Amino acid sequence: MAEILEAAMLVCFGLSWPLNAFKNYKAATAVGTSWQFIALITVGYVAGIAAKFASGQTNWVLVVYFVNMVCLAANWLVYFRNRRLDKAQAAAREEGRSFEQATVI
């Protein structure tokens, strides 16, 4: 029963990551995104995975942890992509070009 409850918590919590990554991808900016928050969640998942190995309870729930980590990795990729886009947009503003012109070059 404990495994089912742990998996349910991970699934509920983990469903937010693909939605968050999609929303941030569409926003195309890292403004308002906290890398510290994403890092803290990453550390939490790593600790949960380590706890499974340390306790010797490597069961099927471990798969849910890894699925969540993949979704969280997508958030990291989108965050760094958006930071790059923010820098390109700032550089374009400095040079007096439009953002579209900056991304084509």
For this entry, give a set of tags.
mainly alpha, elongated, 83% helix, single chain, 105 residues
Structure explained in plain terms:
The chain is mainly α and 105 residues long. Helices cover 83% and strands 0% of the residues. Helix 2 (16-27) runs parallel beside helix 4 (61-95).
What percent of the residues sit in helical stretches (DSSP H or I)?
A: over 70%
Unreliable parts: none
- What percent of residues are in strands? under 5%
Shape: elongated
Rg (C-alpha, Å) = 18 Å
Order of helix and strand elements from N to C terminus: HHHHH
Distance between the termini: 57 Å
Largest sheet: none
Sheet/helix structural class: mainly alpha
Summarize the SSE layout with pairings.
Layout: H1 2-14, H2 16-27, H3 35-55, H4 61-95, H5 99-104
Helix pairs in contact: 1-4, 2-4, 3-4
